[in-house]
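User: Okay, second chain of the day. Same drill as before: sequence in, structure tokens out.
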Amino acid sequence: MLISTILFAQSNLLNSDLRQVHVDQLSDNDIIYYYQKLQQSNISLDQAYQIAASRGMPQDEITKLQQRIQVLKDSQKLNSGNQQQTTQTNQGNRLTDSSGMSDRTEDRTRHLTREEEVDTRIFGSELFTSSSLTFEPNLHIATPVNYIVGPGDQLVIEVYGESEQTYNPKVTPDGNIAITNVGPIFVAGLTIEQATAKIRSRFASTIYRAIATGGTNVQVTLGNIRSIQISVIGQAKRPATYTVSSLTPVFNALFLCGGPNKNGSYRNIELVRNNKVIKTIDLYKVLVNGNAEDNVRLMDQDIIHIPFYKTRVILGGQVKRPGIFETVPQENLQQLLDYAGGFTDSAYRSSVKITQLTDKEKQVADVDSKDFSSYIPKGSDSVDVGKVINRFTNRISIEGAIMRPGVFELTNGLTVKQLILKADGLREDAFLNRGIITRLEDNLQVSIVSFDVTNILNGTQPDIPLKREDKVTISSISDLRNKWTVEIRGQVRFPGTYDYKDSTAIKDIIFEAGGFTDAATGKNIEVARRVTNGNVNDTSTQIAKIEQVSAEKDLLYNRDNFYLQPFDVIIVHNNPGYFTQKTIKIEGEVMYPGEYVINANDEKLSDIIKRAGGFKNTADPSGASLKRINRIDSQSVIKTQNISKLSTTRRDSTISDSLSKEAVKPYDLIGINLQEVMAHQGITNDLIVEDGDLIFVPKKNQAIKVRGEVLFPTQFAFQQGMNLKAYVDMAGGFTSNAQRRKAFVIGANGNARRVKHFLFFKSYPEILSGDDIFVPKKPERAGISTAETIGITSAAVGIMSVVLALINNLK
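Assistant: Same drill. Structure tokens below.
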């Protein structure tokens, strides 16, 4: 029942006559379906109601439809996009509403077959591919006085004055309207103005006598507009019979049928009425001039005939709208260029090149600009508008030490001197001994013409006439030499390279470099000067001249200045008596731990301990350590590289890897014995402290750690007189993987002690309080494969056989 109801509703709504449609018989899905179709076609509800009224849908049914749509909007069913839609669509060519909305439910270009596709280069094709340009009739305008009344129109007759009455008669198929107490009035074929006069006359002679005296008036307008049928034939994309509103103009009908196809004419479209061509439509009037005089209103049974095109011309190149243009007889090339919007700014306008087709082959014709208005393009002509070449007819230029360098116009007889004066003369730094002219010869080869600038200006040398594209170059003095600089290094605030200036004194460059630093000395400033005339044959050739200069640090001005020369290198040395504060840090079991500033260059560990108040009772001076920043200098890098090369030659990467790790360590740990140092101050172990040193004095530690390859790694209480072997035995002894010969002890102060060997005797190190004992693991060795075992055994058997053979021979 639902499917049959939907099919019934569609058949009614798609019918040109909507008088029999009943909204109550439509389901919600039907209304949602057609509402979405309207949305896809960009048709508003107001327009849809007017279309429905023009096709005979009663006003009360339109009101019901409005109410149903509003209810669906309130329930948001329309916004939810209900997908239950009928997929059956009318695939025929017949449009069923006055604005073509059923045909525009989807993108019209998707329905075109390959034969219907149009070359977009054809001028005017975009008129029928734009969805925003439909030429729909305006249904809100007042009734035109020349509108021809016909069957199906509904008239609205307003009687006002002494009598008040409204009539809504509909024109019957036989052309009459029926008015109660008046009788039928034939109005078909009359204009609104004529129908109004006839109705007024009948009313005045029957029921409204006051019309004759002027007491009562009659006004006739259109109510619902009738539908008419028109046909589009010929070279249209979709030739067919269409049902449209009686107010529809011819351009709207052309849009509905998709316009001319690829062979259709845009210039000679015929409107046939009563078997006569009443109008020849030229779409170029609208496209070029916006003239819509050919957009006449259609009448019932009108025929639009689109013939084949007769002449088309391809226009390309430097025009504003290149494309394919249709021409009519006696249209010239200038009119064709006007259709394309004229030339672009870079177009070559003197002539155009036309490629023509003969009966056998192609040929080329050049048409000059003076013949544009007389040349009549032929079918299949291809017009190409060229581009101006990238060169100048009268350009010259001047550059270098000129007040106003740039491009100038080449006037008749212009010379080098005149061009210099035209550019406001030379700059003060101009090099006057030589100038050059870079000239482009007639054969496009580049040549150089030299001249003496001074002689040209004072007239002692003949002036040189200039030619097109000449470039005059007059260099600056500074352009012909290296850039002069001076360099300042050492104890100035902004060392670097500075531009040399004439009469620059030593104090000037120091001032320009930000002045002296606090560590600088104004004495013994070295100035290294280039040697430009050295004797290369001398065994001791001087390569730089050194000057010793002094300058007051206050940079006072005086006349005793040392003046610099280009490329001087100034070095400001440090003040030997200037020192910055250096600090060390002491932590752990001292009376006053913290940071201390080094007092003298030879301050020792014992001095720092005294300044820190000495040791606490809980301190272990023998386990103290010194952490020193690893300052990697160039000498240490060279040593590391040399040892790395040596280890490479010995094919031992272990040494190289170890040295690489040492090179990047941030600090070194130095083992010290402060107990011995404080007992004998000034001894060798009483090291001189350095900036950044960290001295750590630990607490007394009565525990001994045993780690590594022992059966039970742990800690033991310190016992005086016990050696490494005794503590290992307390930890269960060595494991099977222990490397006994490599066992060692790390003292609390960072010193390491190992087991000593002499012949078959071992000497184990004495253990002190806080020491760590470490037993390393044997290195893993690769096992011998079966094949290697067989090979070794075979070799051994062979050797034994040889030995036995020798013994037998000796016997």
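The radius of gyration is 56 Å.

User: Thanks, on to the next one.
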